[in-house]
Amino acid sequence: MAAGTSAWQLIITGDPTLYAIVFLSLKVSLTAVLIAGLFGLPLGALIAFTSFPGRGALVVLINAFMGLPPVVVGLCVYLALSRSGPLGAMGLLFTPTAMIIAQAILITPIIAALARQTIEDLWSEYRNEMLAMGVSRLRCLTALLYDARVSLFTALLAGFGRAAAEVGAVMIVGGNIEGFTRTMTTAIALETSKGDMAMAMGLGLMLIAIVIAINASTWILSSITKSRMG
Fold first, then answer.
1. Is the residue at 141 inside a domain?
2. CB within 8 A of 46, min separation 6: which ones?
3. Helix 184-194 and helix 197-229: axis angle, to 10°?
4. Cα–Cα distance measured from residue 52 to residue 98, given in angstroms and rounded to the nearest whole number
5. Which DSSP symbol is given to 159?
6. Is 176 left (phi over 0), alpha (psi -120 to 50) or beta?
7. What are the CA-CA distances from residue 176 to residues 3, 25, 172 (Å)?
8. What is the pLDDT of residue 129?
């Protein structure tokens, strides 16, 4: 009970350590989502909209990669960015950039798979009508992307949820350095092990509040879109 009261006090009084961790976490996760979206959305749309040899195998692979173990991704990124790795000269290991790379790799398959399924379902529904009207494939794709905008935004939010809750990969490549690479999840794990339950609970409450706020925004956006279409 005392820890819960102290946690709320940290949030209300604007504890600088707590909010620095929150802001870094948001910066890393949102940047990772942006990068993953730039790769995942076009990839999902391309797979949904075209036929080519090996398409089925690629779909299976992307779906399988949705469950990539975070620690394995963290290990691969660590090896690539370490001094003996191919990208070691860039000096990115134990930096926020390394954490962004790891998170982007983790969530790109999620965004790509959800985007593919959404656009493929719409294409199956409207394909005959669009082709009968002589609509070009580029305009078909543009129309489908616009029609699926809420679902695609939801895919991005799913990626953000995975990124924001990630511990293993960012711990490996970021090092959980205080004031530099410590995120909400890694800080919660550390503070819990140290017995500082007030800070751990404060960060946990902030993480839950952020997830709820984002999902509420999605629901409101979806409701507004449906009401306009209705």
1. yes
2. none
3. 150
4. 34
5. H
6. left
7. 23, 12, 8
8. 83
What total of structural domains would you count in the chain? 1
Q: Which domain holds residue 131?
A: 2-225
Structure tokens at 99: 């954490």
**In percent, how much of the chain has pLDDT > 90?**
48
Name residue 208's amino acid. Answer: I
* Helical axes 16-49 vs 149-164, angle rounded to 10°: 140
Q: Which residues of the chain have pLDDT under 50?
A: none
Domain of residue 187, CATH code: 1.10.3720.10
**49-78 pLDDT, tens per residue?**
888 888 889 999 999 999 889 999 999 999
Decide if 230 is inside a domain. no
Task: Please check whether residue 203 lies inside any domain of the structure.
Answer: yes
The answer to whether the pTM exceeds 0.85 is yes
Q: What gap in Å lies between CA 77 and CA 85, rounded to an integer?
A: 9
Rounded Cα–Cα distance for residues 39 and 42 (Å): 6
Cα 229 to Cα 139, 223, 224: the distances in Å are 20, 10, 9
Q: How far apart are CA 29 and CA 160, in angstroms?
A: 6
Closest alpha carbon to 170 in 100, 85, 69, 68: 100
